[in-house]
Amino acid sequence: MTRPVPGFLIRACALLLALVCLGHTLWGGLEERGAALAFGLLVLVGELTRWTGADMRETAPLGAAGAMAYALLGDDGGRPTQHGACQVVAVVLVASVLGSVPHIARGHSPSLDHLVRRTLTVGFTAVCFQPLHDRGVFGTWQGTAYTVLVLALLGLTALCDAVLGAALAHSRTRWPFGPLLREELRGLLGIGSAVCATGAVMALAVAVVGLWALPVFCLPLLLTQLSYRRYAAVRATYRQTIASLARATEVAGYTPAGHARRVAALSRAVGRDLGLAEPELTVLEYAALMHDIGQLSLVDPVPSGATAALPAEEQRRIALLGGAVVRQTGVDPAVAVVVERQADPCREQPLPARIVRTVNAYDEKARNAGPGGPLTALEELRLGTAGDYAPEVVESLARVLARQDGPARWEFGRPPGAAETPAEGGGRRTGRSDGARGWVTHG
């Protein structure tokens, strides 16, 4: 696969496009101010109601649909429009920035990359459509042909947005570009398809009945947005419940404080580096959080909770006990499978179980090795790749640690730059949140 475009170049292109479009619009003035105001308000409302802190790829779907509809607006109530591509980008950009102000005031500053993607995708659509429409190229396109044209342009825009999102996330996190692109493309099947469909419908409806179509046709997307908000809340509660269950071993004194969270964070980072998809990463994270829960069934606790040093049969017994506990909690059975198989022979394990086993051993060895423990632990893991640990997982772990300014910089409890939670976990997620999920701390 070709090397992705550096993030700074993408941001520079977005800045240049924004300056050109704003300058052109200010110099020539607004054309068709009614349509500009209506679509600007729609984008503004979409940004004001955007999700903050949600694990969704499109956090402002109404704003995205309104921006796409304005870029594809060829007629307004049967009258041809002449506002041009530069005005489209300028109106959408100003509305998006204004809609971000309340979020910034509340401390929920939207990512700069969100504005970069919005500017470039809207610019792409407007440049592809508006000049040709102004020249009358689409004058003979009627009915089905025109609808197919609009949908095709939206499809191309969605693909461009996916590539931009993956490239920006790769530049920001250094995760592999291929898996990030697959995740972006997979996201198009969800809220992305709703955004494209709503944008197309609004553009076609305004062309026939005028601007009064906007409040009518944005209603379905508003309802979808509310449904996704509730879904995100349920997922957050579910994750907090699992994190609380995982802390049972710490509260009972079977494992050191923060061990499960450290293993979960590192396991997810390694899984991302190895190209696991988002559903697999979620299973991996939950399994890593609950990987030691089988110790609750032991009469005598393992010293320091260090199961990696136990005989293989004892490790398997604890793993099977843990899987049985997980199954009783109602968690996804795939999580129980990973917990059960984390102590199986390396060659027989699925990849998530290999990751949990390796990261758990790393955390235990590094914790007990004193100064220079992380480097010593990595060397021990490399020596164990002949049978105990998967070589590809160990090397991936080394890359992840190196990405965080070296394994020696990892404090036990959080990597460099991650925020500390009150009392080492207070029931909320903190830390970095970006396209690649990054470091996540669970309370």
How would you characterize the overall build of this protein?
Residues 406-443 have low confidence and may be disordered. The chain is an all-alpha fold. Strands 1-2 form a two-stranded antiparallel sheet. The protein is built from 17 helices and two strands. Helix 11 (259-273) packs across helix 15 (351-368) and helix 12 packs across helix 15 (351-368). The longest helix is centred in the middle third of the chain and has 33 residues, at 177-209.
Name the shape in a single word.
Answer: elongated
N-to-C SSE string, H for helix and E for strand: HHHEEHHHHHHHHHHHHHH
Low-confidence runs (pLDDT<50, min 5 residues)? 406-443
In the sheet with the most strands, the strands line up as 1-2
- Structural classification: mainly alpha
Write down how many β-strands occur, each being a DSSP E stretch of 2 or more residues: 2
Question: What separation lies between the terminal Cα atoms?
Answer: 39 Å
Helix content: 55-70%
Number of helical regions: 17
Mean pLDDT, to the nearest integer, reads: 79
Portion in strands: under 5%
- Sheet with most strands: 2 strands, antiparallel
- Report the C-alpha radius of gyration, rounded: 25 Å
